[in-house]
Specification:
By secondary structure, this protein is α/β, with parallel strands linked by helices. Helix content is 28%, strand content 15%. The protein has a 13-stranded mixed beta sheet. The chain binds S-adenosylmethionine and iron/sulfur cluster (SF4) (2 copies).
Length: 371
């Protein structure tokens, strides 16, 4: 059994001050960080709660009945989220992903989707709106989400073998219900659907081929994610990471693959197509291959902190600004200024400096800032 590290410091209580800079940073649709990376992608965590206990994300030993989730008043309201999102879009964000925790646990989430669907990019285009979910509540919500303006969903599923999947989600949730949810989302028009599979060596690597065979030719894009050292509670060990290159070799030996060009700059997944035209798979090599060079993602936590990297120790407290009475121009200026100061590239540095490359303290949990 791997050692579990219980966080001693609650990172959620710490925050970096988000200030309105003396020299305003106008939202022009293009803001670059210190490495020249634009701001294009915003991930919004709408809840820190989840009904699953995936061992790599919210292990039961840590997220037990005594775990203190954020109180409701701490959460950004839908209006607050939309107001902040509007400023991010004015700075060039084109894609918003709702995540969590389990985003479909947030009450009336479709109302937020409806509000975000009204946003327009600087070119007057609708913002691409997506959501990542464990699928448990998706079958009953798919139609309402589509009607509210959601474009696509990504569903997480770590295997087809029921016993393996039930053990990994650790709440005995069956595979069949997730497969039904994927079908319901497709029927509701939320495709093309992506399926995320986190691969843990020795736990579900025997599910790689069954999953590839199952989704090949269905139009659903299966993406394999390397098990990451996010947060402080999943007891991560490098020997449990199965490098994407091995995943690709395994699939390629049975179902030949050819590499595709990335669909957009900053794309996290390497795209591979089945040589026989059976669709594509994605490989997300977050551990073995740094993709910080064109990382254009910002993350907004459940209570309104802006994180510049998935592995950041602290976030900037936008909620304090928002609730302190800042107007839209001031919010946009603060966001632009924070992004201009960004130099994060954790994955690139992981190999050279060891795991801890941040400014001290513990990293935040994935369930809190979203994947
Ligand atoms: N609950 C939703 C879900 O599971 O899809 C959304 C939130 S979850 C944090 C977002 C994504 O992060 C999921 O696809 C999940 O598998 C992935 N994830 C969580 N912990 C991870 C880890 N340690 N390494 C790699 N991926 C991880
Ligand atoms: Fe919940 Fe998603 Fe984390 Fe699993 S990966 S515990 S479903 S938030
Ligand atoms: Fe982006 Fe941080 Fe991941 Fe690098 S480590 S790709 S900067 S989120």
């Amino acid at each position: 059994m791997s050692e579990r590290v219980i966080p001693l410091v609650d990172q959620r209580l710490q925050a970096l001050r988000a200030a309105v800079p003396a020299l305003p940073v106008a939202a022009t649709g293009l803001v670059a960080d210190t490495l020249g990376r634009p701001l294009r992608d915003l991930r919004i965590s709408v809840t820190d709660r989840c009904n699953f206990r995936c061992s790599y994300c919210m292990p039961k030993e840590v997220f037990d009945k005594d775990y203190q989730y954020l109180p409701h008043a701490a959460l950004l309201s839908f209006e607050e989220i939309t107001r902040l999102a509007r400023q991010f879009v004015a700075h060039g964000v084109r894609k918003i992903r709702l995540t969590g925790g389990e985003p479909l646990l947030r009450k009336n989430i479709e109302v937020l989707v409806e509000q975000l669907a009204q946003l327009r990019t600087v070119d007057g285009e609708p913002v691409e709106l997506t959501l990542t979910t464990n699928g448990s509540l998706l079958a009953r919500k798919a139609k309402a989400l589509k009607a509210a303006g959601l474009h696509r969903v990504t569903v997480s599923l770590d295997g087809l073998d029921d016993a393996t999947f039930r053990a990994m989600n650790d709440v005995d949730f069956p595979v069949a219900d997730v497969l039904n949810a994927i079908a319901a989302a497709r029927d509701a028009g939320l495709g093309p659907i992506k399926v995320n599979m986190v691969v843990k060596r020795g736990t579900n690597d025997n599910q790689i081929l069954p999953m590839a065979r199952h989704f090949k030719g269905t139009g659903t894009v299966l993406r394999f994610i390397e098990y990451m050292d996010v947060g402080a509670s999943n007891g991560w060990r490098m020997d449990e990471v199965l490098p994407s290159a091995e995943v690709r070799r395994l699939i390629d030996a049975e179902l030949p693959l050819v590499q595709l060009d990335p669909s957009a700059p900053g794309e996290t997944a390497e795209r591979w197509a089945y040589a026989d035209g059976g669709g594509e798979v994605g490989l997300i090599s977050s551990v073995t291959q740094a993709f910080c060079g064109d990382c254009n993602r910002a993350r907004l936590s459940t209570e309104g902190k802006l994180y510049l990297c998935l592995f950041a120790h602290n976030g900037y407290d936008l909620r304090a600004l928002l609730r302190g009475g800042a107007d839209d121009a001031e919010l946009a200026s603060a966001i632009g200024h924070i992004w201009q100061g960004r130099g994060d590239r954790y994955s690139q540095l992981r190999g050279t400096l060891g795991a801890d490359t941040g400014s001290g303290g513990r990293r935040v949990e994935m369930s809190y800032i979203g994947g």
